[in-house]
Design goal:
Radius of gyration: 16 Å
CATH class: Mainly Beta
Strand content: over 45%
Shape: globular
Number of helices: 2
Distance between the termini: 24 Å
Structural class: mainly beta
Strand order of the largest sheet: 1-2-3-10-5-8
Helix content: 10-25%
CATH topology: Jelly Rolls
Number of strands: 12
Low-confidence stretches: none
Order of helices and strands: EEEEEEEEEEEEHH
Number of domains: 1
Largest sheet: 6 strands, antiparallel
Length: 153
């Protein structure tokens, strides 16, 4: 039987949240951090992308706006499209078109960024994304939103 919570729902005004830069043309708005992963909005400016990476857990990705191309295929993911990426998926993608691509991501496990030889060059997790959010808040004198911060063991 599933555990039921007595906690209330925690609405979050995502429009009031900052876009936190994570690289050229790439930023995120955190939604929730947890022990099993995280949820975020990712924004890619046209022409920018997500380099080659591997998912240790599954990822659910829903395009809210813009279009992205999955590199190595001819697959275009437009606004309103959903992509399920099982654990072990290795991919890269780039924003195409004239408008930013905004994707709602639910990530479990970690993401390992790979070099041209398949070696891990960076690992991103709920803990590293949370740390980036908290550092941004600290640098800008902003109190972290309780709905987002979560506890990560």
């Amino acid at each position: 039987m599933q555990h039921l919570s007595n906690e209330p729902a925690w609405p979050l005004d995502t429009g009031a949240l900052p876009w936190i830069a994570t690289g050229p043309g790439k930023s995120f708005r955190p939604l929730r951090f947890g022990a099993d992963g995280w949820s975020e909005l990712m924004r890619l400016e046209p022409g920018s992308g997500v380099p080659l990476h591997r998912h240790a857990g599954e990822v659910h990705a829903f395009n809210l706006s813009g279009t992205r191309k999955i590199c190595g295929t001819s697959d275009l993911v437009a606004a309103g499209n959903y992509v399920y990426e099982p654990a072990g998926t290795v991919d890269a993608w780039v924003a195409v078109g004239d408008e930013p691509c905004i994707v709602h991501l639910k990530v479990t496990g970690v993401i390992e960024y790979l070099d041209d030889h398949g070696r891990v060059v960076e690992t991103v997790s709920a803990a590293t994304q949370r740390a980036a959010y908290l550092a941004w808040c600290d640098q800008h004198g902003v109190h972290p939103a309780e709905q987002i911060a979560g506890e990560i063991p």
